Amino acid sequence: MKDISQGDIQNNLPLVTQPGSVRPVQVGSVEVGGKDVVAMAGPCTVESRDQVMRIAEGIKKSGAQILRGGVFKPLTFPYGDPLGQPDRDSDGEVLGRTHILSKAEQMERAEKRFVYLREAGDAFDLPVVSEVLYADGVPMMEKYVDMFQIGYRHMFNFDLIYALSETSKPILLKRHYGESLRSLLGVAEHFFARGKKDLVLCERGVAVPHTHNVESRAVIDIQAVAALKEYAPTIPVVIDPSHSTFKRSYVLAISRAGVAAGADGILIDVHYDPENAWVDPLQALNFEDFGTLMSEVKGISEIIKR
Ligand code: PEP
Ligand code: MN
């Protein structure tokens, strides 16, 4: 893997490495990269209308500014796609195995869950972000979301790069755990070269020989925050302490560290019943812990005088 050379800056990354101060990206009514550290919080997966409403209310009370909620889930294994489940009932029906959904079935079922996400965002005045999996799903999603998330698995998906370059909504681009900042900025340069500049970069951990956690796959690269600020000073950077640590008890500490290092935002999985979340139950925070995280993050951003 290569580091970024002077030649790269001149020839391969001329647009994203422009000097200057951070250019805030507008997500609905919220600025990412402005004065405030922005918390994008919510369920890993939208399970029902009631679930996402309750979570939107809970995160809003603690001061989150953007609601995150996955609908299309790029699962590691083919079973248990949340889109194949009936909506979670109020007793908290637990995810079971489902049949394998065709893409057409996924698209059809997803729209209903995007409606729930939008309704919850509107009810609590929170712009919404959700992951995009398919270029031909972009027009449907664009009706409901304020920001498209590109998950780490899709960092190099050129169908998505081309389709999203044509949209008017901003993009949250995650770095793959095995990819360099050079590659991440290369993807950002593809967007910039197509005139798509409302981009936020997300650090979600790198692969290392061991992670201090039997379940997890990555360790967050705090240095990446500082390095991205140096190489691409105009582009806002956020970190995802939930999907990198994959462990609830690490999320608070890593959020503090990321904000202290200069991150413009954090992406946090939150659920009122974390142990029974359909996806990623080991990492979601409950409302109380999320409240603690928000007040500590606020304290840190005051100390570093953002
Ligand atoms: C997510 O944010 O829900 C997600 C699946 O992210 P990642 O691509 O980082 O795994
Ligand atoms: Mn998740």
Might you state the CATH topology name? TIM Barrel
What is the count of helical runs?
A: 10
Mean pLDDT: 95
Oligomeric status of the shown chains?
single chain
Rg for CA atoms = 18 Å
Q: Your description of this structure?
A:
Helix 2 crosses helix 3 (103-123) and helix 9 (248-260) packs parallel to helix 10 (287-303). With 306 residues, the chain is of the alpha/beta class. It starts with 5 loop residues before the first helix and ends with a helix. It has helices at residues 6-12, 49-61, 103-123, 138-142, 158-165, 181-193, 222-231, 241-245, 248-260, 287-303; strands at residues 25-27, 30-32, 38-42, 66-68, 128-131, 147-150, 171-174, 199-203, 237-239, 265-269. It has one domain: Alpha-Beta Barrel (TIM Barrel), CATH 3.20.20.70. Residues 44, 243, 269, 279-280 line the site of manganese (II) ion.
